[in-house]
């Protein structure tokens, strides 16, 4: 089953299989006070925006305020550690991205265990990654780019060292059989600026950051991850269509809780998230953040993290990727 095929009905079914779950919620009176979602990124980031979108809906569903608390810094470790140290009572959550799994592979001295210290609750949104090229690069397709890359070592921009875009670039390098020089930036904004100026050859980012530049002819859309083209840039083929098989890179956003959080509460919040994501307006709200609804049960989300960790570990080891500690 592909990750994007997880359904609302499967989430409800998983919750229904928990014996006495309804009684447990009633006995605990959950929720009887405000909930908190920690975001390990700054206010205004995509993660922060998604937390606020979901937080409003979750507050309506649970009948209690949901407070969003940005705790940025240390490549998401500050916010993640704060959540781990919170009481496992169902009132504190962490909205994290794929970076959570990558940190476990790249940073040796994490103050927590990527899997043991967290209870997976639900994925919320997913975003494909798109490969773009500067107008100065004499290539408009994957085949042309690979051919050009065999005559000249290309530079590539990413939004951070060790992040999903970095892993995507190294996976492409391996599949395409070309060497690339990494130019990391602090965020997608500066990376896109230098791509527009021709200071770097190619780059990986979320579609939202470059759609207007592709359609305006200022950047070349080379290929996009996933099994289908993006409706906003239908002229950009998938990597599979372009002849690169095995390029399965998807950036996800998801909710975690402290490891010992009662499973009935985890299941209830997960089911509420699934209902929220099924609402007609959520697709539009998430699209504004360059993402789309991505539903999973707690067990499915746990499997996603394990699978991503195993897959990305091969890419990281093969490319010798390291980040400063």
């Amino acid at each position: 089953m592909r990750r994007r095929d997880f359904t609302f009905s499967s989430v409800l079914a998983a919750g229904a299989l928990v014996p006495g779950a309804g009684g447990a919620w009633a006995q605990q009176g959950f929720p009887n006070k405000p909930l908190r979602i920690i975001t390990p990124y700054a206010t205004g980031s995509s993660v922060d925006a998604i937390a606020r979108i979901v937080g409003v809906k979750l507050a309506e569903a649970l009948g209690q305020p949901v407070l969003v608390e940005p705790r940025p810094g240390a490549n998401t470790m500050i916010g993640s550690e704060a959540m781990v140290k919170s009481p496992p009572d169902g009132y504190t959550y962490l909205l994290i991205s794929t970076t959570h799994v990558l940190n476990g592979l790249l940073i040796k001295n994490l103050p927590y265990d990527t899997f043991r210290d967290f209870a997976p609750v639900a994925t919320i949104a997913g975003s494909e990654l798109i490969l773009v090229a500067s107008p100065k690069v004499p290539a408009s397709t994957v085949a042309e780019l690979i051919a050009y890359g065999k005559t000249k070592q290309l530079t590539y921009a990413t939004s951070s060292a060790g992040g999903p875009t970095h892993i995507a670039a190294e996976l492409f390098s391996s599949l395409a059989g070309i060497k690339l020089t990494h130019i990391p930036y602090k965020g997608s904004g500066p990376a896109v600026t230098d791509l527009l100026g021709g200071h770097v050859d190619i780059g990986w980012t979320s579609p939202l950051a470059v759609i207007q530049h592709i359609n305006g002819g200022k950047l070349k859309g080379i290929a996009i991850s996933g099994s289908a083209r993006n409706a906003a840039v239908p002229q950009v083929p998938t990597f599979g269509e372009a002849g690169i098989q095995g390029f399965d890179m998807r950036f996800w956003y998801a909710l975690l809780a402290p490891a010992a959080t009662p499973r009935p509460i985890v299941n209830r919040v997960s089911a509420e998230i699934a209902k929220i994501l099924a609402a007609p307006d959520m697709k539009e709200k998430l699209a504004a953040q360059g993402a789309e609804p991505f539903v999973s049960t707690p067990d499915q989300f746990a499997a996603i993290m394990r699978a991503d960790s195993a897959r990305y570990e091969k890419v990281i080891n093969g490319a010798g990727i390291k980040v400063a500690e």
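The longest helix spans residues 298-319. The chain is about 40% helix and 20% strand.
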